[in-house]
Amino acid sequence: MRSIRSTWEHDPRKNPNEMVYILLGIGALAFPIGVQIATRGGGSFLISQAADAGVYVLLAVGLNVVVGFAGLLDLGYAAFFAIGAYTYAFVASDHAEFTPLHQAIHIPFWIALLVGMFCAAGAGAILGAPTLRLRGDYLAIVTLGFGEIVPRLFRNLNEWTSGVNGISALDTPVLPIWLNGPWSGDALALVPNFKIIDPMAYYVIMVILVAICVVLVNNLRRSRLGRAWMAVREDEVAAAAMGVNTVGIKLLAFSIGAAFSGFAGTFYGAKLSLVSPENFGFTVSITILIMVVLGGMGNIPGVIVGSLLIYYVIFNVLPGLPQMAADFANSIGAPGLNSPSGDYPGLSGEVQRLKFLIFGLILVLTMLLRPQGLIPSRQREQELQKGVHEDTTIVDVNAETT
Amino acid sequence: MEGATIAPSLLEGGNVVGSLKQARTAFVTAPVGRLMSLLLLLLVIYVIFVLLTKIFDRGGGYFLQILTFGVANGAIYALVALGYTMVYGIIELINFAHGDLFTLGGFISLFLLPFVGADESKAGTAAIILPLIIVFLATMAICGAINVTIERVAYRPLRHAPRVAPLITAIGMSFILEGLMFLWKGPFNLHYPNLLPAASFTLGEATIHVKDIFVIVIAVILMIVLTLFVGRSTLGRAMRATAQDQDATELMGIDINRTIAATFFIGAVLAGAGGTIFGLYYNTVVFDLGFSAGLFAFTAAVFGGIGNIQGAALGGLLIGIIIAFSDGYFESAWTQVVIFAILILVLVFRPTGLLGMRVPEK
After folding, report:
1. Would you kindly state where each structural domain of chain B is located, as residue ranges?
2. Is CATH 3.10.450 correct for B68-197+207-349?
3. Can you give the pLDDT at residue A256?
4. Are A367 and B28 an interchain contact pair (Cβ–Cβ within 8 Å)?
């Protein structure tokens, strides 16, 4: 039995993760070329969307550290995303001139990425320090509350954030050097101080950033810290008894997750050149959570696939669906379905209203039919199959010692 | 609380996690926690001071009016909070879909009203009483049945799964219910017929509406019935036993599944009643009402001590009053920030709530 297990674990052909990484790498390279060929050079919208999808991949990989590795349910993850984006808006635009500071700040994009990251991580640490001792679902509620407060703060603090209007005209990131070529429709040339406007450039940078983050998170998972996270996730009491500093470990997971979110937020703000409090609500937090859960909590390739899939469904399939439904009704010779009457908004309107339902169905069905996710981590799969996971509440142990 | 942060670090023997050594964590978390609690305390004192000056400036009549409004509002939140607290008490699940059941109660009663001939022409007359009672009972029963179905489909199969799993299906069910109501009526604020008497009377300088009294009376009646039921009936005893120890209860020959289903039924009955009362009181319902209302009610449940029925009632009342004061004396844009800040503060400093948790920690 043992030998079968060990061959299973060491045969790369049997390891779905490596296959997924290889396929994802090939896909990332082939995607822009394929799109440009298929659309005859007019695929910049799709490539731009793919770069946006990369933001969600970063978010999902970061949330995976919190939810998947350390087992802390974070329902306010978008708050850190917002903090990252607003940090960039503040330190890389003329906006600060109109705040009580009266001094515009322009920090270069690459440094701003780090600033956004540290601001978010700091916020994560400040929120986490007093709350991570709470039992699992209480923590979920605290993060939910935090996730609701942050966008409202950004909306209400008019003087500093210009309220509902948000902050626009953020600095365009600048690369020290860039290679122009046939892929951007130019002659082959090196361009210094290249302003990143081209979606292709965003895409390339995004792919590189995602790759770096994935390597980073993979190393974290294999490190002593990563093993401590899983120990805490599986059984906090046992982990504490083995000498793991559970509070410190959880705080690190929380801050690292927040850092990823802030990082993604900075990139998002820079690419959109606009931040608004409406972009960081509960649905964003839930979307990221769905990506992690559907992909396979705790397994990085699974989370990447999950996030790409969900992104595609939510931002590409769903917006096109109403038109498709209307065309379908016309093609089957029932145009009457399209005309609104009373409460009925017409077929396309009805389809447009499906978003919430689809969200909910994905969550419930994933949990019921494939709780381990599409590409599960092996440990988690076993844990779920046994179905005898005991409740883990380290807080009780601590409480008794007070 | 602060001692708790140091305790686990004492357990730490060897250098388990590289850079994070015991002294460092104790140094980082404990003083930061103390400093933050001090700052927050000062902030709370400041807010109360500002509130008192504002109350003094605006005079007694305004205060009484805001207070009545807050209590009526709080009665509705209390009804919803009871459902959260009962479900959490028995299976330790934060039932995110509960707030949407509250909205569904409003939608269902709105749908049923024309069938019993309750329209605005009869508003405030004796002819409205019987139809309203029928609508109340039918809405409560339908909501209860829906919640029992949800429990059967989405929560029961996951009862022994990791805790995160049912929590995520609960969020999913919340989205499904919202999605269904969205499909049904769209994103509009729906008009809910104004059936209660518009009469009012003056108390000192304040005008008190009969509506306010109606809401408070109905909520109090329902809560008394619930308390009697849980305290005196066999099923109520089974519920309390299940909340304490499921295995032992099962050994005593009590059907756990039936007891849990009954808890969900009662919770939804109260939420359905709450939704109907909300409709009658505010004359409007909208599909995503349950999200914020549910969070407020959950805050109320946590505030009072989750798992504790009296706590939920008290918490609901207080949250209603706080919301009314925040809306009335400060800007309403800050109300949600205030409520969620209270939620976080209560969880951080007194996770057992005002009246304490009656749930044994398992």
Report:
1. 68-197+207-349
2. no
3. 94
4. no
